[in-house]
Fold:
Amino acid sequence: MSFLSATLSRVKPSPTIAMTAKAAELKAAGRDVIGLSAGEPDFDTPQNIKDAAVAAIAAGKTKYTAPDGIPELKQAVCAKMKRDHGLDYTPAQISVGTGGKQTLYNALMATMNDGDEVIIPAPYWVSYPDMVLLAGGTPVVVETTLANSFKLTAEQLEAAITPRTKWFIFNSPSNPTGAGYSRDELKALTDVLMRHPHVWIMSDDMYEHLAYDGFEFCTPAEVEPGLYDRTLTCNGVSKAYAMTGWRIGYAAGPVELISAMRKIQSQSTSNPCSISQWAAVEALNGTQDFLAPNNETFKRRRDLVVRMLDEIDGITCPTPEGAFYVYPAIAGLIGKTTPAGTVIENDEAFATALLEEADVAVVFGAAFGLSPNFRVSYATSDAALTEACARIQRFCASLR
Structure:
């Protein structure tokens, strides 16, 4: 009889972290590996945010805080939700966690019962299904298509809802595809949800500020105010503010749910890092001037990667609306053989061979629930992206 919990057999380690670790291992062994697997901006945290953290340390703000966030940060989140989305929240409706992942996890742990279902469009962020499983629920994965730009349709959502549906997890712009839903596309989904009052909405808005070509971000409770009382809007400072290591996420929702999430957090991690919280206050309240130039850089990198990958026979690379990922389809490469003799049976074999034979780390599509594809993160330098894409071109050209 195993000492470990049976629950662990239901989940798997994060494939994105595993691929990043494998690339780091090869790099440490002297290989010239270019990593395109980690979803982390290469920009430094803006100086005003770092200064706020230093000031917090100097002021002795190094003690425990309330389990789910200091009042100043909760107030900053309320102000952000009003400013950006016209949504009114009180501090009692705000939860601050150790990264966006914790707020999602707390919400699922606070609400899921055996037999509850959670609708998750695929491709999805790798952690969604496993968090649902850990919470005792059942992920209901609905595959989107390349032809529909990897976006869920209203008809697909309607068909997936059952009396057991507890949550619908929504992510726009998306990890891993970068696909962003327009207001009309999101309204079609919210119209479906209005017909099913037992279904709650978990909106992961982490890539909100990373949008290109005039794409206008909107969030479900903003598009359909009738969903306000059963929507948890989740966000954080990791991506747009280049604060991945600071580990601050937040969520806005009904008081009863936020209170339940606080109870779980108080008995697990307790408060997020006090210094990081004060840095996040400055991130949300301070200047946002760096967002536009950062986005211009990301857009340039996106266009570079899409162009170079789309030139490859056997690869189709759509142009995403936001985030910093592309999700090329590789149906035309399946069944081919690498110079080292590896048969590309699926996207995992492709990603493994690309790392071992061409020193480029990407994440295979099966990790995100939709194959055959792979994810590239273009949150790294133009030079690294150009070289990595050239290596992918040479690798694909060598397949027979």
